[in-house]
From TrEMBL:
It comes from the Bacteria. Pfam families: FAA_hydrolase. This is Fumarylacetoacetate (FAA) hydrolase. It comes from Thermomonospora curvata (strain ATCC 19995 / DSM 43183 / JCM 3096 / KCTC 9072 / NBRC 15933 / NCIMB 10081 / Henssen B9). InterPro entries: FAH, Fumarylacetoacetase-like_C, Fumarylacetoacetase_C_sf. Residues 72-279 form the Fumarylacetoacetase-like C-terminal domain.
């Protein structure tokens, strides 16, 4: 299934268009996309059985597929090549990756226009995990059973705010300006993905490739991240986990390169789709 948010209504995306979840279920399922994930174990079987007449839609009508998660986790330095380019210690068993949050007010959809704040705004394409079944102390061996699906994310970052002040720095604030968390175009369930542990991940800026890697290059993979996070805090249905970015960010280029008005950023993960973000 490809579960999306079409102008505020929950839909299933198909090759022929979008099926309205509430209408196709005869009112049994909520029209609110967030409700589907907040009650995932109850709604998934009904979603899988839905059929209906798909309607055409414009990509610009799609919004963040999980619009109001109760928790958003974000992982830093989780690709070795990104650690190398940033001259940072790579994550390891003895030095796990830094964890921060992106505030929910920064979420936006797959086709979005973002007003740039003052400073140095950078890009970070990321695989985003959507939790379906919550839990505390989830074993890595069963972690995929807790995943509702995967989607594409951008961890946009204003570096001056992020790096300001003494340690610890202001990661969460620097990554939570309005529109700094594009997600979508849909939450894709694992049965739609040949190998959810190995997906090509890339982004282009004005048509030029900035990042190009595979999610199998993550140091802590999805099960390890779920196990680590849930060892400390209870994961909730509908939570999002931004899993880190590969090499190719703007801050580490020589000279550094940051987003400017008029830029177009396209973020893509195979089998999941693309985000298109423009800036002013």
């Amino acid at each position: 299934m490809r579960i999306a948010n079409l102008a505020g209504r929950a839909v299933l995306l198909t090759e022929g268009g979008a099926i309205d979840v509430h209408k196709a279920s005869g009112g049994a399922l909520s029209c609110d996309p967030q409700e589907l994930f907040d009650h995932w174990e109850e709604t998934r079987p009904a979603l899988a059985a839905l059929s209906g007449e798909p309607l055409m839609y414009a990509a610009e009508e799609l919004r963040a597929p999980v619009p109001r998660p109760r928790q958003i986790f974000a992982i830093g330095v989780n690709y070795r090549d990104h650690a190398d380019e940033a001259d940072l210690q790579a994550a390891s068993t003895d030095a796990p990756p830094p964890t921060f949050t992106k505030f929910a007010s920064s979420l936006t959809g797959p086709v979005a226009h973002v007003k740039l704040p003052e400073g140095w705004v950078d890009w970070e394409v990321e695989l985003v995990v959507v939790i379906g079944r919550g839990g505390h102390r989830i074993a890595a061996e069963s972690a995929w059973d807790h995943v509702a699906g995967l989607t594409v994310g951008q961890d946009l970052s204003e570096r001056l705010t992020q790096w300001s002040g003494p340690s610890p720095q202001q990661f969460s604030l620097g990554k939570s300006y309005p529109g700094f968390a594009p997600t979508g175009p849909a939450v894709v369930t694992l049965d739609e993905i040949p190998d959810p542990a190995d997906l090509r991940i890339s982004c282009t800026l004005n048509g030029e490739t900035m990042q190009d890697s595979r999610t199998s290059e993550m140091i802590f993979d999805v099960p390890a991240l779920i196990a680590r996070l849930s060892a400390i805090t209870t994961l909730l249905p509908g939570d999002l986990i931004f899993t880190g970015t590969p090499a190719g960010i703007g801050a580490t280029r020589n000279p550094p390169r940051f987003l400017t008005a008029g830029d177009e950023l396209v973020s893509t993960i195979e089998h999941l789709g693309s985000l298109r973000t423009t800036f002013s």
